[in-house]
Amino acid sequence: MSTISGFVRDDATGEPISYANVFLAETSLGSATNVDGYFVITNVPFGSYQLLASMIGFKIHKQDVNIEDNVNIRINIRLTQAVLEGEEVTVTAERQKFEQSIESSQISLDLREINTVPGFIEADVFRALQMLPGVQSGNDFSSALYVRGSTPDQNLIMLDGITVYNPYHLGGIFSTFNTDAIKEADFHAG
């Protein structure tokens, strides 16, 4: 049994060609080049074969090889680039007449709704949000939001498109948002 090994390179640039197929015609023997363009075909019985090397974007290389028993053969292959021509493909589409909403549960609260929710000392946006379905409070003295079983640190709180990283004050009893400065609150439950 013999071994055929070598490199596959681009004929124009000399750069190695990765993942090219190198095989012996009409046999099940072959290999793919590695990232350096190197290939090895092992356990080749003696005889005459046609060695083929192919890669998309290159012409197929054909070479006759004669294998003698227990001989290692080194072959360097150079592939020439080839333009793959195909027929013109025209793609047309129509816009869907009805677009499906992919928004999960979204609720908007206006200032009137925020102010009508019973609060501790003053109206609080987070206390109003705790009254919504899917939202829980840890206790009566916390304005933290537990949305659908998550923890408060997993919530994204934004004010006019800017992330607010610590939305609580006084140990979490109140939110940092002044209800007089808020026109509406949008709540997305994920």
Characterize the structure shown.
- The chain has 190 residues and is mainly beta.
- It folds into two domains: 2-79, Immunoglobulin-like; 106-188, no CATH class.
- 6% of the residues lie in helices and 35% in strands.
- It contains two helices and 16 strands.
- It has helices at residues 111-116, 125-129, and strands spanning 2-10, 21-24, 30-32, 38-44, 47-54, 61-67, 72-74, 77-79, 106-110, 135-136, 146-147, 158-159, 162-163, 168-169, 174-175, 184-188.
- The strands form six sheets. Strands 1, 4, 7 and 8 form a four-stranded mixed beta sheet that branches. The protein has a four-stranded antiparallel beta sheet with strand order 3-2-5-6, with no helix packed on it.
- Strand 5 (47-54) and strand 6 form a beta hairpin.
- The model has no long low-confidence stretch (mean pLDDT 85).
- InterPro entries: CarboxyPept-like_regulatory (IPR008969), Plug_dom (IPR012910), Plug_dom_sf (IPR037066), TonB-dep_rcpt-like (IPR039426).
Overall body shape? elongated
Mean pLDDT: 85
* Secondary structure tally, helices: 2
Strand content: 25-35%
Count of DSSP strands: 16
Q: What are the secondary-structure elements, in order, as H or E?
A: EEEEEEEEEHHEEEEEEE
SS-based class? mainly beta
Pfam families: CarbopepD_reg_2, Plug
Protein name: TonB-dependent receptor plug domain-containing protein
Domain TonB-dependent receptor plug: 124-186
Short description:
It holds the Pfam family CarbopepD_reg_2. This protein is mainly beta and 190 residues long.
Keywords for this structure?
190 residues; TonB-dep_rcpt-like; four-stranded antiparallel beta sheet; CarboxyPept-like_regulatory; Immunoglobulin-like; 2 domains; 16 strands; TonB-dependent receptor plug domain-containing protein; mainly beta
